[in-house]
Amino acid sequence: MRDLPGNYGLIQVSWQPAPPRVTRGRLHIEVPDSLGRQAPCGFGRTKRDFIGWYRPDDSTDTQWHRILESRDPARPGVVVRGTSIRVGQQECVMDGAGDNLEITAVADHGFWGYWVQDMGIAALMDTVSHRVLPTAAGFFCALRESQ
């Protein structure tokens, strides 16, 4: 995992809810400085192995994209802890939303695994049946870009 820093093309495919959806973007991962390796979280601190940012291929300029693309070491758009990657608002934020990616395999050309969307305290509801829809989830691959 120490060779993880770099630039990647990230592809996420949802397997739920139907129909499947494919999203793409650019993922950047870097080593934080010594002050950035731990961040305030509630009454304590949380460890961060790597930080970074994510730029979706969807070029819409929204507040959500600004969160994902944040290069602020105090509030990065991406945090890596062990084999887990959080893309979006960090978990220490009350009602933080994002995607949680779990790495299951690593190779020289990239890494891959599965992901689950975290909606914070929100839930999606079908307006016809009034049933709560399942949380988006699927698999991903991150392909290392040439230097």
Question: What are the main properties of this structure?
Answer:
147 residues, mainly beta, two-stranded antiparallel sheet
* Lateral arrangement of strands in the main beta sheet: 1-2-5-6-7-8-9-10
Span from first to last CA?
18 Å
Mean pLDDT rating: 86
Discrete helix count: 1
For the sheet with most strands, the description reads:
8 strands, antiparallel, barrel
Structural class assignment: mainly beta
Cα shape? globular
Q: Give a count of the beta strands, DSSP E runs of length 2 or more.
A: 10
Number of domains: 1
Run of helices and strands: EEEEEHEEEEE
Low-confidence stretches: none
Strand percentage lies at over 45%
**Percent range of helical residues:** under 10%
Radius of gyration of CA atoms, rounded to a whole number: 16 Å
Description:
The chain is mostly beta strands and 147 residues long. The chain has one domain (6-144). It is 4% helix and 48% strand. It contains 1 helix and 10 strands, in the order βββββαβββββ. Strands 1-2-5-6-7-8-9-10 form an 8-stranded antiparallel β-barrel. β6 and β7 (84-88) form a beta hairpin. The longest helix has 6 residues, at 63-68. The chain is globular.
